[in-house]
Write a structure and sequence with these properties.
Strand content: 15-25%
Structural class: alpha/beta
Distance between the termini: 62 Å
Number of strands: 18
Mean pLDDT: 75
Low-confidence stretches: 196-200, 203-317, 518-524
Strand order of the largest sheet: 1-2-3-5-7-10
Amino acid sequence: MTDTDEPGVRYEKRDHIAYVTLDRPAVLNAMNLRMHEELAAVWDDVEADDDVRVAVLTGAGDRAFSVGQDLRERAELDRQGVVPPSTFGSRGQPGWPRLTERFNLSKPVVARVDGYALGGGFELALACDLIIASDRAVFALPEATLGLVPGAGGAFRLARQLPLKIAMGYLLTGRRMTAAEALRSGLVNEVVPGGDSTRPWPVGRGPSCVALRWPYAPSRRRYCGPWTCPWRRRSPRPSRGNSAAGTAPTRWRAPGPSPRSASRSGGAADDFRTGGSSDLGGSARRAQHRPPPLRDTRPGQGPGRKGCPPHMRAASSRNRMIVLWRHGQTAWNREQRFQGTTDVELSAVGVEEARRAARRLAVLAPDAIITSDLKRAAATAEQLSSVTGLPVTAEESLREAFTGRWQGLTQDQIVARYGDEYAAWKRGEPVRRGGGELDTELAARAVPTVERHAGKLPDGGTLVVASHGGTIRACAGRLLGLAPEDWISLAGLSNCHWHVLSEEPSGWRLSVRNAGAPQETEFSEG
């Protein structure tokens, strides 16, 4: 039996989830004609089976999601004249219509990308509704370097899911995009650790999963399009339309067209694109449309889930989350000065960053907010308090590390004066920067405070911690169980960006890293 005769797709259904696996790991899951035919049958079955609520698409092995079309097979078929020359789309060819052309597929598809997603593999991921990537995922449309055109949707989907200039940079050069770059651009929903095939990915649970939460009722197909959630909650902000009302009910909507239909219709694609006229990024606009955690707030009912339909109850109960949120920009950040415990205030840009970030974090419906008592962190936390109505608890233990002689110096000055000390610290060695605190001492005073407040959360609760770059790195490293010399790998948190730690039976897991809208400064200390 030849490779062409072997099945190239694994398909199974469990717990209302259809798992679709591209299964040609020896050729990095390159897609031949047989795979396209099998995938067409799979998507037909997913659409027809009312017991399936979401599909998960991934690639076999740990090297690639898919590197796209099997070019060796294509070249051989072209030489034999068996298949007509390639055109945009796949109409008339085996395996049509493909996922990239199923604009009316009513059920959400989640792409789990580990390793390379190149060419048609990247186009396949772009056609999915959500993308969860491992930290070693690599995306690219290299067709321009081969004299080809990404004709399965990449030419227009990428330009509608990214800002135009950024998308054109990738389309015209074929250069690669890392998982971290994709997350910052809003192209992927979540980045998770890769390399451990025994560890389950966050499908069926967690903040970014829609396995049982998507607004789809199998017995009532009319809910597949734009819908209005029957549960309302009061907005914590005063109503702009009626000042006498004080608050106004907010109705939550799921996005109408999926990225597949948005790619064809054009107008709705802005909901899946970073940037635009709104002051929120693409992921924030998607989050605005997501139904809120469903909680019964009637007197005497406690945190129950009464009133939810059966297919949504499982998603409304989730594990606790900790959001480690760095403060907005200060004048010293712009000058790249180490702030340490110096009480520097937010700049005007920092206040605006905090205001915008607060609107995005409010979508998570936090249960508690704590902050460092330094002005820059406290002012950042107050922006979230003004949106959610939650009180803010200031904790001295959440201050930035004391860095002694380094405080007030720019990065270049520190390298010039304390080059060896700075280099040792960047290597992850235990260093008292400027004669100040060790990172382990910083973690020893900050982590117990975070754990104490997290311990007070209800089931499925969310704690937001507004603090500083070094404090967040130490807290995340300790909570994740990393060795102190590896904490430096968590550096790089931008102003008003955040990490999200999700609770699992084995401990805390980094589910989101450096999330937030693009910022002007990337300096990560203080």
